[in-house]
UniProtKB/TrEMBL annotation:
Gene3D superfamilies per UniProt: Amidase signature (AS) domain
Listed InterPro entries: Amidase, Amidase_CS, Amidase_dom, AS_sf
Residue ranges occupied by any Amidase domain in the UniProt entry: 27-453
Gene Ontology MF term list: hydrolase activity
Record keyword Hydrolase present: yes
Endpoints of the signal sequence: none
Name this polypeptide is given: Indoleacetamide hydrolase
Record PROSITE patterns: AMIDASES (PS00571)
Keywords recorded for this protein, A-Z: Hydrolase
SUPFAM superfamilies: Amidase signature (AS) enzymes (SSF75304)
Function: Hydrolyzes indole-3-acetamide (IAM) into indole-3-acetic acid (IAA).
Length: 474
């Protein structure tokens, strides 16, 4: 590796080196490529490579942005004109994007050099990244475990210090789950904070959004400044921030009212190490001067049933559009068993079922709004078990009956804040006895990323994670 202190810098720090001419964008790109070549044979985090695209960006002249010259990976669900996007699906293994998505345009305007795509499960459906097309993405803390999903490739690459920040997206926890599994920072922004077009106005009924996973809180905040704001096709917009998000980093959060729970959304006990980590985090917060109280929202509907219906109907549309494009019926040679089963569930659902799921999501959202009248922040575990082992969740199994119970044990609480549209983040504050990261999830009021960023910055100073590196690390 040519740049000895590459891993010491976050993305903003690397951009400063480029701006001050201490290093060139080409040298940073070469470093990221060398690290990818060295580690990805074991990780399988980068499933599409287009190094020459990034080189051409540099040769053409990079825009002056907050991340100018910083190497970057786009998640393999988003479009970048002239490059391959597979969506983790066999039928799209050779698909080349005809245009660039709005979010990717804003990444480019921020100055990053995009040299590849990070792994995702097929269509981002599962909280583990193990597509049939690309194979499993492994956790750099323990290669027998999953890196999480659906932004598993991004989180694994950032955790292994291949690069400091990478694109991620979240429809039911897909930024926060891999951030927790891999020991990095992941913020899911408020609904409509960042654009999702131009091909659609919303994803998964408004549940889905895009942002990044990162080593530092600063990178997440600065990138949010670069990305946020509506586009012409936006069906709705997020409340404008009071000041740039970057200015929240290091700002005193004040004395917050923080509610917490050390059990699952359903009231079930969780992994003892994770429960203990939640209680330890609560004590840490209390020591920082916050008012901390054990208290959790009561939900009027089952979030698992809601998201199952919303996701199935959207998956059914994905399969139908693929059939229309190909002019033939889709088979299990094209899509995984789980994808086809989800689409089949959509076929058995009615418009009334979809509307009922949307209504239940609203009822959950309203109950959370009422709950947040009693607190500023809610702390809960991001994951309720340690990261899954590779193969534990099999999307090609003929019997899929075990998946729903597994998801209810593993990630019962992440989708709540997709339904409500509230910002939520996973912060790497604990590790298990076996050395696996344990993320803490903090949720804030709708539109209030500022409070979360101030709190995350405070926690980053009090219990820094930057120098905690996995065994497989560049």
């Amino acid at each position: 590796m040519a740049i000895k202190d590459y891993s010491e810098h976050d993305g903003v720090g690397l951009a400063e080196l480029v701006r001050n001419k201490q290093v060139s964008a080409r040298e940073l790109l070469d470093e990221a490529i060398a690290r990818t070549d060295a580690l990805d044979g074991k990780l399988n985090a980068v499933v599409v490579r287009h190094d020459d695209y990034a080189r051409q960006q540099i040769d053409a002249g990079l825009p002056d942005g907050p991340f100018t010259g910083v190497p970057f990976l786009l998640k393999d669900l988003d479009l970048l004109a002239g490059t391959k996007t597979t969506f983790g699906a066999s039928v799209y293994k050779d698909f080349v994007a005809p245009h660039t998505g709005t979010l990717a345009q804003r990444f480019l305007a921020a100055g990053v050099t995009i040299y590849g795509k990070s792994a995702s499960p097929e269509f981002g459906l599962m909280p583990t990244t193990e597509s049939r097309l690309h194979g499993p993405t492994r956790n750099p803390w323990n290669l027998d475990h999953s890196s999480g999903g659906s932004s598993g490739g991004a989180a694994a690459a950032v955790a292994a210090r291949i690069l400091p920040v990478a694109h991620a997206s979240d429809g039911g926890g897909s930024i926060r789950i891999p951030a927790s599994a891999c020991g990095v920072f992941g913020l899911k922004p408020t609904r409509a904070r960042n654009p999702i077009g131009p091909d659609r106005g919303e994803g998964w009924g408004g549940f889905a959004c895009g942002h990044v996973v990162s080593i530092s809180v600063r990178d997440s905040a600065v990138m949010l400044d670069a990305l946020h704001g509506p586009e012409p096709s936006s069906p709705y917009v997020a409340p404008p921030p009071e000041r740039p998000f970057a200015q929240e980093v290091g700002r005193d959060p004040g004395k917050l009212r923080i509610a917490f729970t050390d059990v699952s959304t359903y009231g079930d006990p969780i992994d003892p190490e994770i429960a203990a980590a939640v209680r330890d985090t609560a004590r840490l917060l209390e020591g920082l001067g916050h008012h901390v109280e054990q208290h959790a929202p009561k939900l009027p509907a089952d979030p698992a049933a809601v998201i199952a219906t919303i996701v199935a109907c959207n998956t059914g549309l994905t399969v139908k559009l693929a059939e229309q494009a190909l002019g033939r019926a889709i088979t299990d040679r094209d899509f995984e068993v789980l994808t086809l089963a989800s689409a089949a569930n959509a076929g058995r659902s009615s418009g009334l079922d979809y509307c009922a799921a949307q209504l239940a999501a609203f009822q959950i959202s309203r109950s959370l709004a009422d709950f947040f009248a009693t607190c500023d922040v809610f702390l809960s575990p991001t994951l309720c078990t340690l990261p899954l082992k590779i193969g534990e969740l099999d999307t090609m199994a003929r019997d899929l009956s075990g998946i729903s119970p597994l998801l209810q044990r593993y990630i019962p609480g992440t989708s709540l804040f997709n339904m409500s549209g509230q910002p939520a983040m996973s912060v790497p504050l604990a590790w298990s006895g076996s050395g696996l990261p344990i993320g803490m999830m903090f949720a804030g009021r709708f539109g209030d990323e500022a409070t979360l960023l101030r709190l995350a910055s405070q926690l980053e100073q009090e219990r820094p994670w930057k120098n905690r590196r996995p065994p497989l690390c560049a």
